[in-house]
Specification:
This protein is mainly beta. It contains one helix and twelve strands. It has a single domain, classed as Fimbrial-type adhesion domain (Immunoglobulin-like, Sandwich), CATH 2.60.40.1090. A hairpin with a 2-residue loop joins strand 6 and strand 7.
Length: about 170
Amino acid sequence: MKLNIKHAVPVALLSILAFSQSAMAETATANFPISATISSTCSLGASGINFGEVGTAGATTSQTDGLGTITVTCTTGGAYSIALDNGLHNVAAQRNAQSGSNILAYDLYKDPARGTVWTGAAAPVTGTGNAAAQVINVYGRIAAGLPFAASSGTPYTDTVLVTLTY
């Protein structure tokens, strides 16, 4: 078999060109964005205050303290605030429990010493969620010496609205 150089050179050149074209392949890039949103979610629970018996008809004999709790569970990192309104029977921003037409003044506080009144939305308690239940204490007090009428078996009651903002 005789090798024809005339045909061998073009075949070799074509092979080299084909190889060099694949070695010089072009590339393109694009960004592939990824995103996720984690919404802050919260749940709210509350146990109120029962002051029990506070005195005999006429006036409270001594100051009476009580404790209630608010339980907040929020997504980790979710900021929240808790506000308490002045109740259903407030007069001039003074919280009152009511029995019939009679009222008995009380207040709610942020601290165990009962030095900081928990006023409405202007001064909420704030926190940050950690995915666990967080218990916030509400300290109540009926001052000594307050006048009131006997409730005749009907307790003095009030309802305070708890507002959780997150």
